[in-house]
Each structure stands twice: as C-alpha cells, then as structure tokens.
Amino acid sequence: MNFVEVVGIQxxxxxxxxxxxxxxxxxxxxxxxxxGSFLGEISRGxxxxxxxxxxxxxxxxxxxxxxxxxxxxxxxxxxxxxVEANIENLAQLETMDxxxxxxxxxxxxxxxxxxxxxxxxxxxxxxxxxxxxxxxGHSNNISWDPSGVAALITPWNAPLMLxxxxxxxxxxxxxxxxxxxxxxxxxxxxxxxxxxxKAGIPAGVFNVVQGFGREAxxxxxxxxxxxxISFTGxxxxxxxxxxxxxxxxxxxxxxxxxxxxxxxxxxxDLDLAAELAVEQYDNAGQVCLSGTRILVHESVADVFAxxxxxxxxKLTQGDPRDPETDIGPQIHQTHFDxxxxxxxxxxxxxxxxxMGGEPNSELGGLYFKPTLVKNPAPGSEIVTxxxxxxxxxxxxxxxxxxxxxxxxxxxxxxxxxxxxxSRAHADRIxxxxxxxTIWVNCFFVRDLRAPFxxxxxxxxxxxxGNWSFDFYADVKNTVISxxxxxx
Length: 487
Ligand code: ADP
Hints:
Layout: E1 3-6, E2 9-12, E3 15-17, E4 20-22, E5 27-31, E6 38-43, H1 47-85, H2 87-98, H3 102-126, E7 133-135, E8 138-146, E9 149-153, H4 159-172, E10 176-180, H5 187-199, E11 206-208, H6 213-221, E12 228-232, H7 235-246, E13 252-255, E14 261-264, H8 270-279, E15 293-297, H9 301-313, H10 333-348, E16 352-355, E17 371-374, H11 381-384, E18 391-397, H12 400-408, E19 412-413, E20 415-419, H13 423-432, E21 437-440, E22 455-456, E23 459-460, H14 465-472, E24 473-480
Parallel strand pairs: 9-10, 9-12, 10-11, 12-13, 14-15, 14-20, 15-18, 17-18, 20-21
Antiparallel strand pairs: 1-2, 3-4, 5-6, 7-8, 8-24, 13-23, 16-17, 19-22
Helix pairs in contact: 1-3, 1-5, 1-6, 2-3, 3-4, 8-9
This protein binds adenosine-5'-diphosphate.
Adenosine-5'-diphosphate (ADP) is lined by residues 153-155, 180, 182-183, 212-214, 217-218, 221, 233-234, 237, 240-241.
C-alpha cells in the first residue's frame, strides 16, 4: 500500500526523491492524536534514502540556481496558488495528523503556508538588495548566490507552517531542498510534495525523506553534500545536529525552545493581560513562543488571577475538528507522558497547582487539562524547563528590576510578552529584555519581513526577510574599481 486515505484525501506514504516516489522496506506507524486511530504505515528512511535525496538535490541544483529569481518565482507563485486552492484539504489532513485546531488551520495556518512561499519568492525578485556603497571610488556590489542543498528538519507542532517557513526562502534563494518532517506528522509534507509537481517545480529541486530523527535526520545533517542545515526543534537535538554538522562545517540555523515570560505590570490593562495570558494555552501549549511564565506585579496579582481564572474556565477542551474547541490533545503518547511527568513531579515537590494538573478523564486519550502552577519555587523544574504542554506558571514581582531579573533568568531567550499601560515604561522594559521577539500589549503578530529567532539557548541566527537569504544564500561582495576599463 503506497497510499493512505485520510478524511477522503489520498496521501502517498513513500518518500519523494528526484521527482519520484520511493518506498523503504521498513515503515513506521502514524496515528492520530485526536483518538489514536491508525493513519498509515509510512516509509522509514535512513542513510540510503538520504543519500539518494541529496544526490537528486545536487543534480537539480545547477539548473535551478541558473534560472534566477524571476523564473523560480513564477513557479513558486504557482505553488502558493495551489496551496491556497488546497487549504481545506491541508487543514483537514494536518488536524488529523497533529491534533491542532481545524479552525486555526483553515483561517490562519494554511493561508500562512501559501504566504511563506509567495512572500519569499517576491522578496527575492523585488527586495533583495543592499545599497551599493563606495570605497575610494570603488563600488561594493552585494549579491546572494544560491548555495547548494538545504537540509531542513522540522517539528510536529505546526508541521507545514514551519516547513514552508524554510522551504520558501531556500527555494527562492536558488537552493534545492531535502526536507525531513517530524515522524509524528509526515502527511502534510507528502501532500505538499504532490503540489510541487503540479506547480512544475523540476524534479529533484524539492525532496522529502521521512523517518526518525536518529536515522534519517542524523544521516541528513551529517551528509557532506549539503550546504545548509535549518532546524526547528528542541535544544538537546540541536546540540546533536551541531556535532553532526561540525565535520563538514555546515552552517546551521536553529530555532529552538523557550520558557518565555509574560510580564503584567501594575499599570497594565488587566483584562487585556488576562486575555493574552489565556492565549498561551493555544495549540494545547505546544508552541515554542508561548509565554509560559506569567510574572505579575504583586499589587495587581489577585485581581489579575481572578480575571485569568474566569477566562480560563471558559476554555473548551475537546476534538480539534469541533469549531467550539479551544484546546485539543497533546501530539503523541510519548509527549503526553512527558508533560504529565513534569506536572506529577511538580506535585511531588509540593508546588501549588491551582488549576488542571491532570489528564482530562472525561475525554481520555491524549487530552491534558489546562494547568496553572502558582508561585512555583524559584529554580524548580516546572518554572525553568520547557514543558511544551498546557502548563503555565504564575509568579509575582515588586519592582521593574526584579521583573527583568526574573524574566531574563533562564537559559532561553525566544520571546517575551509585556503588558504595560505606559509607552515610556514599556520602552524601558523591552530595552533590557533578552529575547528574539517581544510583543507589547499583543501576542503572535508576525511579519515575514521581520527577523525571527532566539537569543541564548533558544536559537542560532535569524530568519525572515533579508535574514533568510543571508542564511540560505552565499552572500558575495564584488568590489569594482573605477580604473582599468577599456570600454
Ligand atoms: P521533540 O523531542 O519535541 O520531538 P526534536 O527536536 O527531537 O523535538 O524533533 C524535531 C525534529 O528533529 C524532528 O523532525 C526529529 O525527527 C528531528 N530529529 C530528532 N533527532 C535528530 C537527530 N539526531 N538528527 C537530526 N534530526 C533529528
């Protein structure tokens, strides 16, 4: 069986290499987090499949690179249109595979997938330039040359969104791609591969190898034939990849975890603050950017906590296909057990769990209740480690200095949310926060032109706008003298 049918949509279970479907003799089982139902047996790639894919991508590279941004762009715009025409299919498929809300996939995520492709194609055509500047009459001319084969390793929490955030700029830059999607969510990448064929993207330009991180992922990141590695996932895996990349000195871009602060100051609009805090349960807490440490000024903590409780009590947990649902399941039994383990240990440690703190027994399966830990002991596991589930901590502070010290006091620096009633005050706070992205009185507003990435252990490098091309391309400076010309 080379195909599975999920919600009436046919998906190929084989790898996509050099424009062809290639099966492995070994497979892995894919199930839905919604109800544990069987979705399919997926080809499980390793060294041999990775080698084939990198070779196919290398062979396709010269012609793709030589096409230039405009011709590549025309094909990529066609691909974006095909994604748009398939939003419903992709939304249904992704929800079955990763358990995120169907309404979010329809309204926000899948349109964004199309934008990821379109935006970078257009950026390469229209915006990718620097001012030409002069040095003693010589001009400096900067160009972004295609670099080769980009190896893209992506996670399961927003599979196609995060994959195309890399695929878009890599292909627009003239690189060819080998994508290794997460083993818990392989389906949308396979469906997307079919769309690249329909868009007329030449064989070998875009390849997908499915499989486990320690097999397919490890083989891909250690491969001498790749020119770039872009990875989104956990800190421990990033360290393994950095080691794998070291022998070939392959440049890496890492977008990793977080334990981001959400700061509520005493001058804040507390209704807005409570609304933003409850949003941190989005995607059942499986969001690297989540502000999972709520830090509140002591003088407003009780009022804020009441507003938070009122709003959180209205959250509906259930089947992600139901439009009334706000919180779905965790992705997989292994991850569910991990999240539960954090909460169980916090209980054993004597931490005060004032909301949730257990699986949702009415729903069973992988549904874990939205949870709040109040005043966790400083330095304890629950307030320092990334749980990646619906688990928030709430702590208080009494001064801006203390707030900043607490906010910056982790190994992470991905994001921060600041809720303040004064612009001057917010400016002082954001200046001293260490984070790749800070949202003031808002959350999750993202522009593809802006740099995105993490400070400290939350990442290496930035992507978005020119930053993406600075990574995927070979940036070149050609210095031209005013002298020596004969014509
Ligand atoms: P999580 O533990 O939350 O699943 P990971 O960072 O382990 O997060 O997984 C993100 C992606 O990294 C997945 O596609 C996974 O297969 C891949 N991965 C895991 N281990 C490795 C590895 N050693 N080398 C390359 N990729 C890996």
